[in-house]
Amino acid sequence: MDHFNYRDGRLFAEDVDLTRIAEAVGTPVYVYSAATLTRHFGQFQKALDWADHLICYAVKANSNLAVLKLMGDLGAGMDVVSGGEYARARAAGVPGDRIVFSGVGKTADEMAQAIAGGIRQFNIESEPEMEILSALAAGMGATVPIAVRVNPDVDAKTHEKIATGKSENKFGIPIARAREVYARAATLPGLSVVGVDVHIGSQLTDLDPYRQAYAKVADLTRALRSDGHSITRLDLGGGLGIPYRRDNSAPPLPLEYGQVIRETVGDLGCQIEIEPGRNIVGNAGVLLSQVIYVKHGEGRDFLILDAAMNDLLRPAMYGAHHDIVPLRESVPGAEVHAYDVVGPVCETGDTFSKGVELPEMQAGDLVAFRSAGAYGAVMASEYNTRPLVPEVLVRGDQFAVIRARPTIDQILSRDTIPEWL
Ligand SMILES: *Cc1c(COP(=O)(O)O)cnc(C)c1O
């Protein structure tokens, strides 16, 4: 459920008419609903209310400072995957002891930054990383909490580009080798082993892979305890999917996911961390765009929008689907047309969706891409020197620009022509 609904034939975000935002800020523009974000976070809180837990929002899904501040104020921790994301979380007011640091390629500088600034735990993805972190922490006179990310070798049954828990993926340490790696960790200075970490992929629409992975984590936890390690925390990752098509059968709810956690690891007495990103912010955002041209091609009609693959990359990158709806609601019974919806970028991949059924559209009409809050703005670029897409946050009847569209002058001023040229 989200807070983007038609009122008197016009699409609103909470109590704000989206056409008003399009007119005030221009298009393309992302719009997020604070109420939807809050609601989704609350669902995870409720799903884990049986456990001592921390929900570490996956910053990479949507890292705008205003979104992070809102999440942090609700009590969320953060899962970061770079020094930049760590800085964002801190700038949004999230204390270091609520931030976990994941990622396969953490640099020494990034790790030092997080040690100095405060960190809840590092999720270690390889032995070389563990050695470097140990040397760094010891050199700084610190002892840092770590969990080792294990790769449980389960099929997450999701898109191959966002599956992370199979043995052929680059993530984590093979679970079969985990006891050896924990034994090594226990001998290293500057590290304090606190838990086990796992994350098997994104946009999961089936709970079964979770059940398999978490059962393996539970077995490992018992084995590690019998080896003498103190395992007090389990980081179970993110990945719970969202419905991208309104006609589709819905993916499992956070409450059902929480039950799987309880059934698989609930008896271990561990503090539970989860790292949802998409499920919190995905349906809390839309991308607004204006029709530039309606072009009649051979056997098909194109809707050429002012949004493009550089603003919303998911369709070009993963073949992902987003429902596209008009801001002016189509009247029941009105004639529908099928359009191939494309952007202006010079790539055939700049196609959002084919055969989209919409009322008859004209240049100047406005549309919304639904479910665009996650992996939308964060993946945007300025390809074709199209200004980085702006973002707006709505709460109740108010809205604010939370990232402004740069001017062309600002874009050009970031380049330098060397004086010897
Ligand atoms: C991407 C990622 C997440 C979030 O995944 P979602 O599908 O957005 O929930 C969580 N943890 C790690 C380690 C990730 O890489």
From TrEMBL:
Q: What is its EC number?
A: 4.1.1.20
Q: Which UniProt keywords apply?
A: Amino-acid biosynthesis, Decarboxylase, Lyase, Lysine biosynthesis, Pyridoxal phosphate
Enzyme class label: lyase
Please list the cofactors this protein needs: pyridoxal 5'-phosphate
- Catalytic reaction list: meso-2,6-diaminopimelate + H(+) = L-lysine + CO2
Residues with the modification N6-(pyridoxal phosphate)lysine, per the entry, are K60
Orn/DAP/Arg decarboxylase 2 C-terminal domain spans which residues?
30-373
**HAMAP family xrefs:** LysA (MF_02120)
Report the family membership: Belongs to the Orn/Lys/Arg decarboxylase class-II family. LysA subfamily.
Protein name from the UniProt record: Diaminopimelate decarboxylase
Name the source organism: Paracoccus pacificus
Gene symbol of the encoding locus:
lysA
